[in-house]
Amino acid sequence: MTRPEKNWIANLPANRLIAEFSVWSAELVRLGDDLARVESFADILHVDVADGHFAPAMLFFPDLVASVRRVSSRPIHVHLMVADSILLSQVEQFIDAGSDLISIHVENEAVANAALDLLDRRNVAAGMVIKVDTPVERAAKFASRLSFITLLGTAIGVKGHGLDERAGTRLQQASKIIADCGATHRIVLAADGGIREHTVPVLRQAGAETVVLGSLAFNAPSLEERMGWLHAL
Ligand SMILES: O=C(CO)[C@H](O)[C@H](O)COP(=O)(O)O
């Protein structure tokens, strides 16, 4: 499959919500079929990676990203939820597997600059994710090095949960950090977790440019209608 062009982040839609499709919520036993079904609606494929320590779940691995890379032309965003001690090795492995954007956690602060240096050297876009209880300001010192900032709206590494009531205020804080950080490149603000029909308008209003769609997209009775609704918000 063709890889996304070099400046794919700058070229993401700016006049509507960007749709990240979470592979975790796909029909995993028929993953290739389900990814083919959503290919034309997904702006980005989102792959969660969790090590059972940093986050309670055990999720996904580089070979899966390499396989997805072979069947999809969509940009692949890997969200790493792993302990400091293995972060650099995981970044390297997911770069080798063909990721287009890798987000580390602000809570990996001790090794964050080393991970961002590695992504820079390997020419892969960098993102940062903030857990729902972590002050958003902690990402400020990294912001100018990032292409994506993602705020979790639920506990880390769970699905099927409702949106935390602080999500809107936290997105507004993150928008300000992006506006004030002095970057001349685009930094996309993303909301991940608790993405439901009644929460997406609120998140959009609060400044989210992209939402990580799980069941809202994969279980939609009509994906075409759901995406028409999302794009019109
Ligand atoms: O990481 C996630 C939630 O934090 C995933 O994006 C998950 O796929 C969401 O699923 P759902 O929207 O069905 O809860």
TrEMBL record:
Q: Which SUPFAM superfamilies match?
A: Ribulose-phoshate binding barrel (SSF51366)
InterPro entries, alphabetized: Aldolase_TIM, Ribul_P_3_epim-like, RibuloseP-bd_barrel
Q: CDD domains, from UniProt?
A: RPE
Keywords from the UniProt entry? Isomerase, Metal-binding
Does the record bear Metal-binding in its keywords? yes
Q: What is this protein called?
A: Ribulose-phosphate 3-epimerase
Source organism of this protein record: Rhizobium herbae
